[in-house]
Amino acid sequence: MGTTVATNALLERNSTKEVDGPLPPPKRVALVTSKGFRDLLRIGNQSRPNIFDLTCAKPELLYDPAHVIEVPERVRIFSDYSPSDVTETSDRYVVYPSGECVEILQPVPAAGSEEHREIVAGLQAALDAGITSVAIVFLHSYIFSSHEEQLGELAKSMGFTHVSLSSSLTSTVKAVPRGHTATVNAFLTPFLEAYIK
Question: How far apart are CA 59 and CA 52, in angstroms?
């Protein structure tokens, strides 16, 4: 029964429909993503049944486009490096046992900075609008999840009741499927928890 309820909620894009009694929000989900990628999930991967169909309809978004918070953070997979580039004391590189190296090009803004205040203001605006669930997806978080985890902790401390990190849900390399998984999780999990109770 729970899977039917979840499937219907997802297909109808309605997580507030009454099912044997009222269920609480989220009506909408906030999205936190890397700066410059606010439309990543809206654009998707451009796959469609008929590539020449100019009238193809996309499903309604699970997140609220008015509450997309862009975070100025960036990491890259640093594949062409030598041991002299990466020192143990450097905060710029993270080397994994597999030999993969991540270069931190821009860390998450520090508390107290103007950029951090803008992130907090965006999250607070979502809370003020009644949004209590947030999905977080950053580029390359499948290997370097620290930035998502930092924002997840911030969102929880501000009062979001459900925080969905793409890096903790799937280790998919591509950001679009990770982002879709995180938004579906943020949309449905509170709904299903209320249904089960």
Answer: 18
Query: From residue 60, how far is each of 67, 99, 147, 151, 192 by CA, in Å?
Result: 15, 41, 28, 26, 20
Query: Residue 182: CB partners within 8 Å, gap ≥ 6?
Result: 135, 136, 137, 164, 165, 166, 169
Helix (H) or strand (E) holding 184: helix 175-196
Mention every residue, 6+ apart, whose C-beta is less than 8 A from residue 65.
42
Q: What are phi and psi of 102, to 5 degrees?
A: -110, 130
Task: Please report how many Cα atoms fall inside a 13 Å half-sphere around the Cα of residue 49, on the Cβ side.
Answer: 4
The CA-based dihedral angle spanning residues 72, 170, 177, 115, taken in that order and rounded to the nearest 10 degrees: -10
Please report the pLDDT score of residue 57 as a whole number: 74
Task: Report which of 118, 85, 117, 116 is spatially closest to residue 102, judged by C-alpha positions.
Answer: 85
What was the pLDDT predicted at 1?
45
pLDDT digits (tens, 9 = 90+) for 82-114: 766 666 556 788 888 777 888 899 999 999 999
- For 170-186, the pLDDT digits (tens) are 988 999 999 999 999 99
Contacts of 93 (CB under 8 A, 6+ apart): 78, 81, 85, 86, 87, 101, 102, 103, 104
Q: Tokens 């997806």, residue? A: 137
> Strands 29-34 and 63-71: what pairing?
parallel
